[in-house]
Amino acid sequence: MENSTQESHLRAENSVTYESPYPLYAMAFASPQTRTRHQHHRIAVGSFIEEYSNRVDILSFDPDTLSIKPNPTLSFDHPYPPTKLMFHPNPNALHKTNDVLASSGDYLRLWEVGDSTVEPIQVLNNSKTSEFCAPLTSFDWNDIEPRRIGTSSIDTTCTIWDIEKGVVETQLIAHDKEVYDIAWGEARVFASVSADGSVRIFDLRDKEHSTIIYESPQPDTPLLRLAWNKQDLRYMATILMDSNKVVILDIRSPTMPVAELERHRGSVNAIAWAPQSCRHICSAGDDTQALIWDLPTVAGPNGIDPMSMYSAGAEINQLQWSAAQPDWISIAFSNKMQLLKV
Amino acid sequence: MDELSPNTQSKNSAASSWRPGQLAFNPYFTQNEAANSKSQCLRVLVRRPFVARLTKDIVETYQVCNPQFKYSEELNPKRYLTTPSSGVLNDGYDNVNSDLILTVNFVLVNLDMQRRYIVKDVLGHGTFGQVAKCWVPQTNSFVAVKIIKNQPAYYQQALVEVSILTTLNRKYDPEDKHHIVRIYDYFVYHRHLCICFELLDTNLYELIKINHFRGLSLTIVQLFSKQILHGLALLKDAGIIHCDLKPENILLCTSIKPAEIKIIDFGSACMEDRTVYSYIQSRYYRSPEVLLGYQYTTSIDMWSFGCIVAELFLGLPLFPGASEFDLLRRMIEILGGQPPDYVLKEAKNTSKFFKCIRSVHNVENGEHSANRKSAYQALTEAEYEARELKRPSTGKEYFNHMKLEEIVTSYPYRKNLPKEDMVKETQIRLALVDFLRGLVEFDPAKRWSPFQASKHPFVTGEPFTHPYKPPSETPHMPVSQNIRVDHHPGGGHWFAAGLSPNIPGRNRVSIHSNPHFQVVPYAHANSYGSVGSHGSYNDGTGLGSSYGSYGDTSNMFAYYSPVGPSGMNMHAQGNVSMLGSSPDARRRIVQYSHGNGLGMSPSAGSFAPLPLGTSPSQFTPPNSYSQVSAGSPGHYGPTSPARGNCHGSPLGKMAAVSQFNRRKSWGYPGGSQTQESSSTHWQGQATDGTSSSQAEGNSQILGSSPSHLHLSSNAGSWKQQRGSSGISAGYLAQNMPASIAVGSPMKFPMTTGVAHEKAEANPSLPDPGDWDPNYSDELLLQEDGSDVSCLTAEFNQGMHLGSAETLVGSGRFNRVPNSSSGPSFQRQNGPIQSYPHVEVGSPPSTTEPLAGCARLSKPSHFMPHISQNSPSRLGQQYQRSNHGRSTNSRGNDWNHMKMQPPSPNFNSGGPHSPGNSSFSNGMSWGHRASHPVTSIPPASRGRKDYGRIS
């Protein structure tokens, strides 16, 4: 094991911090394909400002120089704090030369991110009234079928958009209460979590039914986030509101979590599976810590300890572990975004 | 410092090639309390995390960002739990079936208790209404709430269940030790009676299904048997007949206790001394005496119990009769022997299934010598067909052996059973055979009581060495009364008339029905016309006639037809189940049919008895008794031979019929009115659409009685549909029309018929031989969770995530996954099904029920409700206004004043006011007039229903 001096040394080389003028929440890496065109990695960050007008900034990360640079010409206004940002998983499929970025908030919006400008492509709004709006809490881009984006809304529904046609493919009343997150497993299968405390799996081929694979022990304890293990679709992870637990689910054994990771000392705010390993997951929370867990085959009697940890300077609000840069975990706390090498 | 260093873990992670290094991250160490508590203290969070502010609190957050931001929960698409989901009745609250339209998070409120029930899901539905799983915030618990249709008949019947269960719970089983479902609460919400029960789990049918229709282990069968016997012993003590005991009505408890079960659905139950209905019990579990139309006692539940025990062991029903003829044939074949001559001699339907091969005279003489050969011989299929002009439907044989002993002993053993266990199991199987023999015993007098059965070695676990000789039952014997009763009052009459009892149903029907049905639509005329006596007269016709002339069954029919709505419902459901296509379809149908039949009957009987702890007076019926007899009999006059009977044998089955009369009369001081009302009733239903003015005054009385009629009618239709041999075409004809009048029923029969055929065609029932005996039902003993998970697991395996096709959600609940490969028997309703009792007649007389209830708990409360409820759902409500004719009934007057229904019902004479008169007991209520009853029409709330989003 490294001694402490080595540690600090290593840490200096293995983390990069970007400081923003405003608090950050949403965060996204551009997909691996785009890297080849830009030489650096693009990272989009969204502000959390309690005003109508918020900002989305496009940053460039150069892993060689460990530098993060903002692109002022690529910053743009966003109504409300974006609840999620995501780059097109495979922009080449669009026959476009530019990146496409999606954001959720009051509506789902698509933006074309060029070399020097960002142009709104469209606003996808399924609301029947202009007076009222049911905000989107999250969305997920289907990387197998990139024309599909699924959004989750507090109106209890999930809406599946065909973004190429700009139309709603389907809208499902997914839950009994607000839906807080959504994640695709396959081209036609997605899961969602809700204020009703359940994790449900949907198959677009049978919209009448869903499968509940988990319900929070106290009815109606909201589940805030959901992460589907892309390396092993049997597993997904979810977090409960105001809870220090990360609940790991095996969809083959519904109801009973396969593991509950309880080493955070504050509520968990974000989770992300390792893009290159089916057994590793990172979680981050109000205890300012990001923990990396290696899921054992058998849990010990005292629960599972994480394999490693990182302490940030403040409550960590966001965590991304992107396939575009599997060696880097990005976290957001206060007005900083930090990239951590793993 | 790290308990689990990365190195340690790496051993486990051999499978994964990639591992995070220790670059930006440090090895995890268990944090020091002191150091941490400091840092923790520093992190007092003033604001919630962003993730919460952009999910749970997103509306607030966005409103801070933009004060103009508006979100309306009202606009959210609703997930409907009730279909159809369009509100067309009861100010948009009810669908066309009079079911309350439920959506997720719909709140049912017991205003008296200020208790809220938040609907989370629907557990099942039936003709009676729906059963919802509800969250009770006050108690932090889930309950099952049965939400009864907004129709007087169902309402009334449901009250019976309330009264019986309340009595059973409080008086007989205060400590909840007898495996009877607990009733927690009941109230009226938007004109729907809501009954709150403890939430239970899977029913035994589902359990067997989960096990792929393989039998359960003997240990579990014994465990369940013991518990059911506990419950049945209690019922016997209370003098209550469940009347619909079957695996679907026995549910696993959610408690941690292993395999604890409870008996549910007392919607068909009746008091032993008020056995009103003859068409009861689900077919597979129907006792021979009920099938034959003989008087019955709590021992019919023991028959059903025997069938259940056998089914638990075999995984398939012991007597899966496709028709009554088929059912009887199977009993005779499997058990050997046949019902005793004393039963056959008296039973109303004997001629449908048996021919007399010796003179009755001989039979009577023969009674002295027990060993004498029977005077009756079962009809062959050909004979039956010749007699009934209809081929009896027969079902598939599921067992290779036809004798009970062989079926049980040769049932495949579990694979890999050690020798010793094999020997042991063989012994226990012999005990089981002996046990079953005492339960599925043709002679109700010899059939074991719950007490006797509970001492059997199979239950006690003692070694079985010789055939069991039960201890003599301490004679409670309320039965004796009944025994004397002349079941066939009607029969007697017919004889007198020179009619042979053997006359096929249809003939009878026509006779009966004529007065009834035909008249019915225009009942008014009749009733009015025969003023003075008219009231009674009509009644006589309707009720009386049916009695006298027909056997119970026939009566049933007559009644049924009027019931349009109920009929419909049943059918519908029937269909649904049928869709399952599995062989089971039949069962389902049966169930429903029963439901109807059952439901209805009990109410009449049961109420009266209410001795159950409640004071009879509260119930409407009680008064009537005495009155009834007095009033009605005379009136009947020529038309109804029956009435004579009624009088004579109040207790008998016929008595049941007679009860109707009684009821009617009860309400009224003046007999005539009552009757009228009843007649109106019918009309109302028939017409449906029209509002009945007439009914009002009378209605109260009628309320109760009419409903019965209806019910019965349903039953009638059922039979037809089922094609039960018993019923002849004639019936159909009659029934049909009736139903037609009502509304849509027609189509149902059709459908059902079809479905039925399908079902039969289906070879889906697994042959026991095919089953894999290698299963472990130990699982079943585990908490249900495990079962569920097993299932789900199975289910999930089916769907490979990897493949595109895989994830097909099966029902929302895990338990539901129909992955079970076996034959898909589907019983429609979930665990909690009760049957609907169709009662048409009585108006939403919530009052009545309430009253009944009231006495149970808190009388006064109800009043207000009542008023609201009173308007009957169809819009025809009505109420009890008396048209001039009912001079004296103060009850009526009272009603008038208070109960004006929102709808324009009052026309007194309007010939078509079908109305269901909602009131059932005008009279009784009358005295309650003092209570402030305001009729508050439910404010129509603007509903914003968004269609389903697909």
Automatic annotation (TrEMBL), chain A:
WD repeats lie at residues 172-212, 261-295. The keyword Plastid does not apply. Pfam families: WD40. The keyword Ribonucleoprotein does not apply. It comes from Malus baccata (Siberian crab apple). This is Uncharacterized protein. Keywords: Acetylation, Repeat, WD repeat. It comes from the Eukaryota.
TrEMBL record, chain B:
Keywords: ATP-binding, Kinase, Nucleotide-binding, Serine/threonine-protein kinase, Transferase. Pfam families: Pkinase. One of its GO terms (cellular component) is cytoplasm. It comes from Malus baccata. Transmembrane segments: none annotated. Residues 603-724, 860-950 are annotated as: Disordered. Residues 614-630, 671-703, 714-724, 866-892 have a biased composition (Polar residues). Residues 117-459 form the Protein kinase domain. Belongs to the protein kinase superfamily. CMGC Ser/Thr protein kinase family. MNB/DYRK subfamily. It comes from the Eukaryota. ATP binds at residue 146. The keyword Plastid does not apply. This is Protein kinase domain-containing protein. GO terms for molecular function: ATP binding; protein serine/threonine kinase activity; protein tyrosine kinase activity. Residues 704-713, 905-922 have a biased composition (Low complexity).
